[in-house]
Amino acid sequence: MRLLIAYRSRYGGTESCARALAEKISADTILRDLRKRGGPSPRDFDAVLIGGSIYGGKIQREIGSFCDHEREHLLAKRVGLFICCFYTGERGMSELDAAFPPWLSAHAFVRELLGGELSLGKLSLPDRLLVTSLVHPARDLSTINGEAIDRLAAAFNALARG
Q1: pLDDT by residue (tens digit) across 71-114?
Q2: How is the chain classified by DSSP, letter by letter?
Q3: Which of 38, 66, 72, 84 has its CA 20 to 30 A from that of 101?
Q4: Contact assessment for residue 109 and residue 155, using Cβ atoms and an 8 Å cutoff
Q5: What are the sequence ranges of the domains in the chain?
Q6: 29 forms bridges with which residues in the sheet?
Q7: CA–CA distance from 54 to each of 61, 90, 98, 116, 125 (Å)?
Q8: Maximum Cα interatomic distance, the chain, rounded to a whole number of Å
Q9: What gap in Å lies between CA 49 and CA 42, rounded to an integer?
């Protein structure tokens, strides 16, 4: 089985999660950073995992563009979705629901919240000003959920086993 992990990472947290997933999945796995133009298409894979991070209540526009552009191919594949954000529970699931088009969320066989990461030193000045005015973090934060990464990897490994 061939798996494409298509992701968009603004400051590296989502990329770290995508790489951790790739290491735990026992399939031929290719990572595609959607920030870069071109790259492998979902049509060349058996399954696709799509993820991004939430900023200001929205996922990166490259995720939406990728989903819209590849809609036909995504609907023909097994698809999993994930987001990196600091919310959990019902609020986190609302963020996940809002991050992807409804047609894709309904089609996905697995969806996960992987937690979030905040590295103040990596933030652009506008993002640092926004974040510090809203949540007043005193230091870097990480709520990356290793168990959620394991669950997502296990779902794909089960799919690969048939």
Answers
A1: 999 999 999 999 999 889 999 999 999 999 999 999 999 999 99
A2: -EEEEEEE-SSSHHHHHHHHHHHH--SEEEEEETTSS----GGGSSEEEEEEEEETTEE-HHHHHHHHHTHHHHHTSEEEEEEE-S--HHHHHHHHHHHS-HHHHHH-SEEEE---EE-GGGS-HHHHHHHHHHH--SS-EE---HHHHHHHHHHHHHHHH-
A3: 38
A4: yes
A5: 2-161
A6: 3
A7: 11, 15, 10, 9, 18
A8: 49
A9: 10
108 within 8 A of 81, measured Cβ to Cβ: yes
Residue type, 113: L
Instruction: Indicate the residue type of 55.
Output: Y
pLDDT at position 61: 94
The CATH code of the domain at 2-161 is 3.40.50.360
Residues in the chain: 162
Residue 19 has pLDDT above 70, yes or no: yes
